[in-house]
Amino acid sequence: MRRLPKSSGHVFASTDVPVEALTIHDPQAVLRWYASSARVRRGFCGRCGCSLFWAPVGGSKTAVAMGAFDTPTGTRLHMHIFVSEQGDYYALDDDLPKHAR
After folding, report:
1. Which of 22, 30, 55, 86 has the CB geometry, 3.0–4.6 Å to 46, for a possible disulfide?
2. For the sheet containing 14-18, what is the strand order?
3. Contacts of 2 (CB under 8 A, 6+ apart)
4. Of 58, 67, 52, nearest to 40 (Cα)?
5. Cα separation of 57 and 38, whole Å?
6. Global confidence as pTM
7. Which pairs with CB-CB distance under 8 Å and at least 24 residues apart come from 31-34?
8. Cβ atoms of residues 46 and 31 within 8 Å
9. Calpha distance 36→29 (Å, rounded)
10. Which segments within 1-101 are labelled E, that is strand?
């Protein structure tokens, strides 16, 4: 299996938001985008480098990093993806759907 570069070094929890429903307030204009491939771009803080977004180019949704929120969100996990690449040091022992990729 070809190993892919890691984006976060560990689990990346995100929620998909329709592009038309996403508003980004960036008064200091520090949000930066990086084209990690021809199909995907990643948004991050231009000051600290924190991963904030993942978006397919031309897609209808943007994945927003749940770790970017300071307040309780009321959001719950819906599924696990890329479980074929999970580390051997944690278990997914819930009943949520699990997808290899």
Report:
1. 30
2. 14-18, 61-65, 51-56, 40-45, 31-35
3. none
4. 58
5. 8
6. 0.75
7. none
8. yes
9. 21
10. 14-18, 31-35, 40-45, 51-56, 61-65
Cβ neighbors of 57 (< 8 A, separation 6 or more) are 35, 38, 39, 40, 41
| Integer Cα distance of 11 and 7 in angstroms | 9
User: Do 63 and 15 meet the contact criterion of CB atoms below 8 Å apart?
Assistant: yes
Question: Which pair of structure tokens corresponds to residue 24?
Answer: 């980004």
- The pLDDT assigned to 43 comes to 92
Distance CA 43, CA 95 (A): 31
pLDDT digits (tens, 9 = 90+) for 38-53: 999 999 988 888 889 9
Distance in angstroms (rounded) separating the CA atoms of residues 39 and 34: 11
For 1-101, where are the alpha helices, taking DSSP H only? Answer: none
